[in-house]
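Design review, sub-item: ligand-bound model
Attendees: FS, YL, KQ
YL presented the inputs for the zinc ion complex:
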Amino acid sequence: MQDTLILAIESSCDETAAAVIKSGRTVLSNVINSQIEIHKRYGGVVPEIASRCHTEAIGTVVDEALKTAGVTLNDLTAIAVTYGPGLVGALLVGVSFAKALSMATKLPLIALHHIRGHIMANFIAHPELEPPFVCLVASGGHSHIVHVKDYTEFEVLGRTCDDAAGEAYDKVARVLGLGYPGGPLIDKLAREGNPEAVHLPRVTMDNPYDFSFSGVKTAVINYLHKLEQNGESYNKADIAASFQQAVVEVLTVHTFHAAKTVGAKKIALAGGVASNSALRASFEAAAKKQKMEFFVPPPVLCTDNAAMIGCAAHFAYLKGETADLSLNAVPSLPL
Ligand code: KG4
Ligand code: ZN
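KQ shared the predicted structure:
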């Protein structure tokens, strides 16, 4: 296989990230400048602030990625960037920076889909992993079951019809007064609670691989309002554990159902929610039961990062998938 050295840039949401990746699977640097501390004050990502922070950080982040990797622009094969989906103002910072670098260096430009990147984090974490496999991508913006047929060929088997799993975690954490981002806080608190304490709905859609998380979120909110109106106290850990159980159960059942239907022998997790301890344990147990191999990246590659974009870019480059300087950000780019 052809060797490549790719500088990748990711700025679709609230992380300004740059990485240098060798031949798709070796991470020479992976720099992530998170804006979480800034957005925390507002209880969620404020798009305008995210764009400004990206603009301030991107030059330093890219410099640091090159320096840490011990390479210069002259050593590179290509420049890669996430061009969607995401916040348009945030995406535009990465896209404009990558286009300018590509124009100045005359290096090829590679445009990547953010979810495709999340999936590829598994190839970095597991050098032996090869397609095909089925991957659940669960993050703050997406919940997709994807059939990864080849390194550059993907079929979406199911998706959320309303909230993403991470979005539901963040909203439930907010009503419980836990803070932002809610996923890791609920994950931690749920360990002290009883997952059977509150019965919450498990929604099934017409397509058995699709998801709906707005119902479970609303059920938690209604449950809390009722108790508050009656002046009754409640145990936050029990609610966190019951909510988590409901979400993890649906994510696991639908993904393994989809995997069985397409005859997959391997199953993987990706995206910010893939850091969730209960989800990882549930997938591991289900895979063992169904004699399937299970893959999941370490948390640093589950959250938004540019290493995953560099990996996706390597395989795109080998296929000749390059972009030109007319490239624009596409906030609702389909996979
Ligand atoms: O992939 P990501 O970093 O950004 C997006 O592309 O959205 O995912 C962020 C999401 C947030 O909603 C966050 O609450 C959730 O991932 N998350 C978790 C955990 N860690 C992060 N959700 C559940 N359990 C966790 N441990
Ligand atoms: Zn993401």
